[in-house]
Specification:
- The protein has two domains: 41 residues; 252 residues, 4-Layer Sandwich (Deoxyribonuclease I, Chain A), CATH 3.60.10.
- The protein is built from five helices and 14 strands.
- By secondary structure, the protein is an alpha+beta fold.
- Helices cover 28% and strands 33% of the residues.
- The termini are far apart.
Length: 297
């Protein structure tokens, strides 16, 4: 059968049309790849708990949590340890940095477990524990968890001259290397529960550390002091608390009435506060955790 000239002409036209359509699409695809790759070089992540978008390296999500040695208050009489409950609270909030207090390591009550390392492993973070006292064959103190590399870890004893019988207290600090080449200092502390005068002395020592620090410096912890106390007023001389008015109470977990857990950054730090919230988690510990979103200015 002889070729149909009309059909042949239609086929030729379709090929030409497909070619003219394909070339622009290839160019558009190349442009999308180039500009899309540039846009993706600054990674943005979204936190599922509050849908807060944050840019890695420019925004920081910080948590402070007194974990009551992972012993839920309802299990106090039995001494049961529930590390998964603590880990789940942290995972649900997806923080970059966590300051933990009342952490025990290798004690009888912890079943000879290093709680700092165990929690870090469960949440996929790095850990550093700061020993405050020897306890039950192990140690009791504070800890730092970080998504990012940590170095220059230091445990600084805090003074207790006003009441020498009080438990030893420390502030544990570390240099944190953030994406994009930024570095900060991060600290976790737990001030004296017995003596207001000791707390004043301890904050003064922390302020001295801030005066010597050249990096942006974030501290977080259980200060055992109300916002109107002299200890917190002293803290405000060198640090900016992430909440200063109408701050939600953090203890007790049932009908909370007192605000004693804080996050703060040194006056020279280039941060602004995007948000702060107290997490209404009432099982895992006798304190409610605090979560803060910070942004580099």
């Amino acid at each position: 059968m002889a070729p149909n000239p009309i059909l042949k002409e239609k086929q030729a036209g379709m090929i030409a049309q497909n070619q003219s359509y394909t070339r622009p699409m290839i160019i558009i695809g190349m442009l999308f790849f180039i500009f899309g790759s540039a846009a993706c070089s600054e990674k943005t992540v979204s936190n599922g708990s509050d849908n807060a978008s944050r840019t890695v390296g420019k925004n920081l999500r910080v948590m402070t949590y007194n974990i009551h040695h992972a012993n839920p208050p309802t299990k106090a009489k039995t001494g049961e340890i529930d590390l998964d409950a603590i880990a789940n609270v942290i995972k649900n909030e997806d923080p970059d940095l966590v300051a933990l207090q009342e952490v025990v390591v290798n004690t009888v009550r912890s079943n000879k477990v290093n709680q700092a390392e165990a929690i870090a492993q469960k949440v996929g973070m790095k850990a550093f524990f700061g020993r405050a006292i020897d306890h039950e064959g192990g140690y009791y103190g504070v800890a730092i968890l970080s998504k990012y590399p940590i170095s220059e870890t230091v445990i600084t004893p805090l003074p207790e001259d006003a009441d020498p019988k009080a438990e030893d207290r420390v502030i544990t600090t570390a240099k944190v290397s953030l994406p994009g080449g930024k570095n900060i200092r991060f600290g976790s502390t737990h001030l004296d529960v017995r003596s207001a005068s000791n707390r004043d002395l301890q904050v003064q020592r922390i302020n001295q550390l801030a005066a010597q620090e050249t990096l942006p410096f974030i501290i977080a912890g259980d200060f055992n002091a109300l916002p109107e106390s002299s200890a917190i007023q002293l803290l405000d001389n060198s640090f900016t608390r992430t909440c200063t008015d109408n701050c939600e109470p953090t203890i007790p977990v049932i009908n909370p009435a007192r605000t004693i857990d804080f996050v703060a950054y040194s006056k020279t730090s280039p941060f602004t506060v995007i948000s702060q919230k107290v997490i209404p988690e009432r099982y895992a510990s006798d304190h409610l955790p605090v979560v803060v979103n910070l942004q580099w200015k």
